[in-house]
Every structure is written in structure tokens, then in C-alpha cells.
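Exercise 7.
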Amino acid sequence: MLKDIIIAIRAYGLAHTFIRRHNLWKWIIVPGIMYMVMFCISIYFFGKSASHIIEFLTVETGIHQWVESMQSSIVGFIFTLAGMMLWVVLMLLYFSLFKYLWLIIGSPISAYLSEKTEAIIEGKEYEFDISQFLKDIIRGTGIALRNTLWQTVYLISFFILSFIPIVGWAVPVFAVILECYYYGFSMIDYSLERHQLSISESIHFIDNRKGLAIANGILFYLMHLIPIVGWIFAPAYAVIAATLSVVKEQKPD
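Solution. The predicted structure, written as C-alpha cells, is:
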């Protein structure tokens, strides 16, 4: 797994060089601005709704009054920390749903970038194939919907576990890793589809190379720590880096 993680991390640096060398900016900036606007709007409303949900749960269940009646700084600290962990899990759940919405909406441009990247690497003259393009979009949408279902199931389980003191503190870590894995999965699958792998074969390939998916997703989310610029470039860098990673691994098994 360590080897795959290193390949995926290096692929982001290679993606930047690749984009500059082949002047792909026009296919990155416009979709990136669309993503940034959607991201800013969603985070604003997600943050407000997460806070309202936590407030509702603590007040309606009587937990807040119980903690105050205990008059214990330790209990208060644990309660506050649990609330923070719950907020993080809720934000991850919201962002996960937003991410898949973008994967569906942005599937055409992601499929195009992945196919064009591999064509350039192999030194082929890129010819737009509408049939393959539509297959990539349908496949990408199907994968996004499948991953949405499974990840939502896992995140709901994490949501329940986050109420448990101490155990709940570790929940955000596992939730982030899961989030990164499923995002990287979607990015890598664009390349696997062109190698004629079925969805089940794609799942098998990525399960054997979890490091590629997890590291790709981690770098995608880390780019969000850079305001504006990171938000604009993160989606395109992720799909190009994923394509470069698969090429590095050579042909799938």
C-alpha cells in the first residue's frame, strides 16, 4: 500500500507539470470555478444546518440540561468534544453528498480530461469518440451512485458511534479515510473503464491498490485548505493525477 500511496502523491506533482506542458488550463479553470461556487454555497448551508441539528439533539433529548446539572468540568469537556466530533461527521456526510453531486454533474469534463491525458501519454492523436465519451459518463454516474449508497451507510454508522464517548473521538479519522477512498475510487475508475474492466473488476483492482485511491482523495481534500485556488484546481488535478497513477501501475491486472 505504501508504494501506491507514494505513486498517488507524486502523481499530483506530475499532474501540475502535465497541465502546464500541454496547456490544459481551459479545461480546468471554467469547470473549477463552477465547482468553487457550488462548494462555497454548500459549505455555508451545511455548516448552519449541522449546528442546528446538534443543538436540536442536545436540547430535545435533555443531554444539555443533564450535563449542566452534573456540574463537572470533565463531563462538560467530554460533551463539548463529542459535539465537535458529531459536527465533523455531519459535515463529512454533507460534503460526501455534495461531492457525488459534483461527480455526476462534472462527469463529462472528468471523463474528457482522463481520456485526453492518457491519449497524450501514449502519444496518440486525440480523437473525440462520442460513443466512448457517453459510456464514460454513464459509467462514472453509476459508480458515483453506488459509492454514494455504500458511503452513506458507513457514515450513518459513524454518526451513531460518534455519540459514544472516547470511541466517538476516533470516528472522524475513519470517516475521512473512507471519504478519501471513495473519491479516489471514482477518479481512478475513469481510466479502468477504458481498459475494458467491468465494474466488479474495477472494484477488485482498486481493492488491491487502496493506497492509490486513499492518497488521491487525501490530496484532493488537502487542496481545499488553499482558499479559492485550491477549490478551483482540486477536481481536475484529482482526475489527471489518478490517470497518471494508473498509467504508472501499467495495465490493470
